[in-house]
Amino acid sequence: MIDKSNRFRALGTAKPGELENLRQQMLAQDTDYLPAYHITPKTGHLNDPNGMVFDGEKYHLFYQWFPFGPFHGMKHWKYLITKDFIHFEEGDVLAPENEFETHGIYSGGAICIDGFIYCFYSGNVMNEDGETFSQNQNIAKYSTDGKLLDRWNIVSQAPAGYTGNFRDPSPFINDDGELMFVVGAQREDESGATLLYKMASLTEAELVGEVSYGGKSDLAQQADVYMHECPDISHSNGKDLFILSPMGLKPQAERYNNIFSTQLMIGQYQKGEMHAEQVIELDKGFDFYAPQTFTDSERNIMLAWCGNGSLSIPTELLGWKFMLSMPRELLMEGNKLMQRPLVEFDQLKQPLVTLEQPSRYDIDGNLSQSHIVVDGIADQAFSLTLFEDAEHKLVLTYQDGSLLLDRSQTIETDDMKRFGSERTVKLESLQQLEIFIDNSVIEIFINGGEEVMTSRFFIPNRSHNMAFAGAAAVKISEMSAISLY
Questions:
Q1: Where is the Glycosyl hydrolase family 32 N-terminal domain (predicted)?
Q2: Are 450 and 364 contacting, i.e. CB atoms less than 8 angstroms apart?
């Protein structure tokens, strides 16, 4: 049993050497699952990516962090700065210190204005009943060298007609050059909504109203959706991309089978109305939620939380929990969204071997930190089995237009099993797979990124073997280990 009695501790209460001791315990306990090139917490619990922005030279990203244990506790924003997504420096942690954030700093986005970074975030406060919480909206000002300069409240409470579930502000500049933000909300009838605010200045926020979803969006008909989380607006090749994580979505065949899922609406956004020409589930794996985007001079980049809700996973017994996905580029090619790993990760690839004969192979290299490209599938039946021993294996199978990821023979907690051990993607055809493995996470890019599956898996003492069946060529590279920060 994990002791959660300290779940509302702030970073400032850490004793000298306490976090370093927790870090060393974690490293000593976990020799199987800590990743090499995915962002993980140094200690404790990680969830949503936050505050992602490009300042013209460097990328800035934060994530939800509870330092003292592998569970949802007092939220902080951990701050990382990078030029290449491989090497990172740390900025000042955004820790709860004020009356508008007494019980944590919840998620939000960021924007760069006049050489400063403005982080929009939700403050979490306990209600008078001593059991429930409400959120408000705030801004923290940072320098581009990672220094926290100031913070202030901009919206003290949810507007009339909405509950205290009011979080995840995401700022953007509209077509008229005005500073706006969208924020997730819950109506008093406990249905989900997205609110739109306009800002005359960085200290004044005015409610415009609810964002409406039309076209092919069926959110208005989703009676079970009780909260909108992590709204995010970006653009690609003339299309607006509106990401939303609606809590309460019901499964629809192969879609929305996780405890919480994420939608992407592709179409046109204008003045609080999102007309959806397409609605897709962004990722078809087990572990993907709360994605956020930002742009550099050329690319629309997304990261997500490789986790979901409060699901129990094996690493919580080892002192840490969850990680971020690899950053990936979002781009529209015609009417199709493509997701691709960033080219920055090419520098980690060290070619090992190319296999062309279906068989079982022991790999002379680290398959646990690897990049695998499968070419020449030509829409024929295919299977790939990884890390097989007497008790465990991870299996990917394609037949008759269905790609199936099966983790039933890996270690799964009862919590994980509640949502099934298989995920399926329906395809018109399968031509190619690009797979990244990092000890306890697999990210599968299908047909150049037309679909993606992101999933955690847990196999201890992995054997570096794989087997494949079908007419294909399998090229394996090792991803060189790095120390992120």
A1: 38-341
A2: no
